[in-house]
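INTERNAL AUDIT FORM
Audit reference: QA-55
Scope: verify that the stored structure record matches its stored sequence.
Auditor: D.O.
Record contents follow.
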Amino acid sequence: MDDIAADPSHPRYASLLMRHRLEVAAEKGMLAGSAMIAHGRGEAFDYLLGERTTSSALQATRQALATLQAAKKPVLSINGNVAALACDEMLRLANALSCAVEVNIFYRTPERMKAILDHMNERKHVLGVEVPVLGHAPDARIPGLKGPRAACHREGILESDAILVPLEDGDRCQALVAMGKEVIVIDLNPLSRSAQQATITIVDELSRALGNMLDFTASEGRLEVDSDYNHITVLEEGVNEMLNAFKRT
């Protein structure tokens, strides 16, 4: 999957790999025009974290996984950047949770949807996982949103009680929360609207956060939801980690 001309021993190999995946996805027509800008913005925040998973992010990751495991109908939502950067991890997590994934994008066009769905189904076949991939025939709408981005599947996003929406836009996150769902966001910017409005926000790089979820699933199985978990406190800790970046140098 990753034919990248870079030595794995390079100190920025993980970052170079993510950029390469975006380049490949762009060539396939999976990405919106602003995809690279969004990714670059996230990388800037990751620099401040030292490109590492912090203790507060790990706490949020555990709570997120426990919430998805406890849900009656969890769903993992995928946009173009998520499909490009962490398709395999999302499919493996959905397989572990026995739930569906749904492609749901901001700038929705038939061409982009086909490119992303084709990529997801190709990777699903390679991985050998039986995961329902939704998005091809939306039959419902997210209340409070207008235009094509409101389209969704009834058996997917609409009827879910807990939803993982990595790299989400603020309007859709707010609409999902208003529907009464447990909304989990992975966002390197703790000040974004999505991060602020979500039920749980993991302030971490996408592939690291998903990798940690998969590791917890393999090593610990089912986790317990922490009734004392405080969303705002965890976000504040994420901000403090960034403010203290120079103290780590």
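Auditor finding: record pair retrieved intact. Residues 178 and 216 are 30 Å apart (CA to CA).
Action required: none
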